[in-house]
Every structure is written in C-alpha cells, then in structure tokens.
Amino acid sequence: MSFRSMRCRECGRGRVRSVAKSGRFQRYQGALLRVPAKLKIPTCDACGEEWVDGPTAEKLESALSTIYRKRAAQIIARAMKAVRHYARQKSMSLASIEALLGMSTGYLSRLRAERREPSAALVNELALIGKDPRRLRELEKVWEQ
Predict the structure, then answer these.
(1) Are 15 and 7 in contact (CB under 8 A)?
(2) Contact present, 49 and 43 (Cβ < 8 Å)
(3) Which of 7, 44, 109, 145 is deepest in the core (most CB within 10 A)?
(4) Secondary structure (DSSP) of 30-90
(5) What is the pLDDT of residue 145?
C-alpha cells in the first residue's frame, strides 16, 4: 500500500505521510512502551490517525520487542537483587519463591539469563515484590487462609 498520496480514510481531509516523531506510545505484551522517535509510521497530517501496513507493523514489532526485552530484563534484575537479599535474610530458597509465585523450578534463573520473555504481568509482579520483598510473606499468608 502506498501512503505517499493517500487521503486519510478516517477524516477524509488529510494526507497520509510517513512521519518520524517522538511522544508516541504503543502497547506490546501488555506494557505501554515508547515508540522510537526515528521510526516512520504513516500518519494523517490532519487528524493524526496512524495507518500501519505490513512492513511498518514488522518494523514496529521488531523495535518494540527489543525495547520490551531490554526493559523487562532491567526491571527483573533490580527486583531479583532485592528478592535474593531478602530470601537470604529469611532463609528462603529461590525454589520456594518460585513455588509461591506459581512458577516452575528454575524459571527465575531463566528470566535472569534472558532465556524467557516474561509477560508484563509477571514483570509488574516482580517489580512490586522487588520494591518490598516482605510481600512474599504476605503471599504465603494469602494462600494459608
């Protein structure tokens, strides 16, 4: 599809042109990520509607996947540092933490080694636990009741 002279089907006024700009966000794997400013996306110059075709979708997917993996790894590394410190203080094993979180044994190690792409929900959960590892004990109590 050529966007060079396409009139916007959304508003009927503007022309769709490939635009690179900052301040755009897109959901990927449930996380809201900033679209790289250099990535050109066909956009109506009147209403701002974005028209993503196949090639643009592939570029967007590739860019967001890279951003997601890098950011998830940073969040997980920070959280796991706090969790490991807390676990040592409370004599908790990594396997017991994985069981508490409903994970298979070794899953946290695979995440740290970036051999798995975790869901945004899991990254969020680990981030919250990393901010206050005492939440692990709270989780134990939730399931005891």
Answers:
(1) yes
(2) yes
(3) 44
(4) TEEEEPPTT-EEEEETTT--B---HHHHHHHHHHHHHHHHHHHHHHHHHHHHHHHHHHHHT
(5) 64
Specify the pTM: 0.79
**Tokens, residue 63:** 């860019």
Q: Does an H or E element contain 27, and which?
A: strand 25-28
Q: Are 129 and 79 in contact (CB under 8 A)?
A: yes
pLDDT tens digits, one per residue of 1-16: 556 668 999 999 999 9
- Count of beta carbons in the 10 Å neighbourhood of residue 3: 19
As a residue count, the chain comes to 145
Contacts of 124 (CB under 8 A, 6+ apart): none
Q: What is the pLDDT along the chain (145 residues), one digit of tens a residue?
A: 556 668 999 999 999 999 999 999 999 998 999 999 999 999 999 999 999 999 999 999 999 999 999 999 999 999 999 999 999 998 988 899 998 888 899 888 888 887 778 889 999 999 999 999 988 888 888 877 6
